[in-house]
């Protein structure tokens, strides 16, 4: 069993929903704290930050491979350094943000992007850690996080089976078995067509961990579908309003959408139930409205049952309709009125 704070993770409980703030605070602590309030109102289980600085994640270089030129990239025209300078959450804000989350009863943790971030987050006693997709091949970082003994959630974007095996193996080698893998597509935004949710049950069987989804698509449909395939954790970026702008706003949920995500994923989980055939307890009263065989004309004792005086109709209190051909041509043994349910006792 995996437990983060007071929340269990698994198929036996509703999905664990993580609201990812990322850079949507737009460099305003006041806005960041307001985002915490909105996440709590939406009913999520946890709030997540990202812990790095521009200097811990890249170099102060603005040319070549350090400059984003891809026309399809959401952040085209930025250097990596300037992008992360705009997006990072100042470390001195973390405690205030985490404390606001605690006031609301929310769990709060972060994605560290280097070992110094892990050391810093340990001073704040975070209940879990998240490894971002781009860091799932950083084995020293995974080992460092695993050694804390706390649950570790790893996004799987871009990772091969071999790379995932190495990541999970690294955590387990440090004695940490509390591992959740999040199926993830590292495009921003992602599309349903490239989400490949069929991987979720396969990944669970292959690697023997809890599986969830880090969802960069718009809307709630992909996350709901993931729950039906066994996802027990859902992570989504969120913001106050996409129109506010910001580094992640284009693929982030607004508060009403985040609330819908919480509600609809729980409904999807509730609907899974168990393998069930035959009427459920709730359906038993409805069985009387099935079709069955009824006398459809007034008859006298000795009359022949024909297609004109026996019909398959609702309600379902007569003989099952599968006996229709068997009883046609038999005689009735007493006077009966139209609307009498046919039974074996009425036949000669």
From TrEMBL:
CDD domains from the UniProt entry: SAF_NeuB_like (cd11615)
Ranges for domain AFP-like: 292-348
UniProt cross-references to Pfam families, sorted A to Z: NeuB, SAF
Domain of life: Bacteria
Organism: Lysinibacillus boronitolerans JCM 21713 = 10a = NBRC 103108
Xref: SUPFAM superfamilies: AFP III-like domain, Aldolase
PANTHER family linked: N-ACETYLNEURAMINATE SYNTHASE, PSEUDAMINIC ACID SYNTHASE
Protein name, entry field: N-acetylneuraminate synthase
